[in-house]
Amino acid sequence: MQLEIVYEHRRSARVSFAKHKAILRMPLLTNATQKEELLKWAYEWIHNKLKTDTKLRSKYLPKDYRTGQIIQLRGREFVLNVQEGLEQKSAAGQLKNYVIHIRLPLGIDAFQKQQLCSTIISRILGNFFHKELSGRVHELNQRFFQKEISGIRLKHNASNWGSCSSKKNINLSTKLLLTPDFITDYIIIHELSHLTHMDHSDRFWKLVESVMPEYRKAEEWLKKNGDECTF
Prior knowledge:
Layout: E1 3-8, E2 14-17, E3 22-27, H1 32-52, H2 54-60, E4 70-73, E5 76-86, E6 92-96, E7 99-105, H3 110-145, E8 151-155, E9 162-164, E10 169-173, H4 181-193, H5 202-211, H6 215-225
Parallel strand pairs: 1-3, 5-7, 8-10
Antiparallel strand pairs: 2-3, 4-5, 6-7, 9-10
């Protein structure tokens, strides 16, 4: 994990976590001996935080993927078969009999491995569950909205949970596969509501609430648990 050192006009040192690194803020006049002591203190502080906080650890440390690992998802069980260090230019993956085969090239680090495996698993399982989630979109649309839908796609998208285009295309993140049913329904209802209101106006939220009166509980769940929904 990268540790950035910043010298500031301050009386004491402070360690904090940023998006992809930790930051140690030191007083401007810190001498070499003090710097070594503060670095040791910072490393111990970071280590203890990561050791005791599961959420923090999953956010900052690369996830490992090994042959034999099991992914239980929506009543199905998938097994990983990971081959590393192969003489090939890019990563590849395929699903055979509920086994997700992943082939990784030489020369990648732990974070690159995480990104590649996560993307491959997300794509494969998105394809596997596309029919199931599409069926749920059409079911909720028919029951509450009766709107025209041009297409439904599941995408490996970490930046949002879903989107609805002006061309009536519904895009859903494969992260939804890792959520409880009521969260999945909320995201679908949210995007279907955009077929009527392409904004987040009061009219939009009233429509969402008319379909799902307790949608705020879903919003709270996403804020609390959303970061953990990664393959």
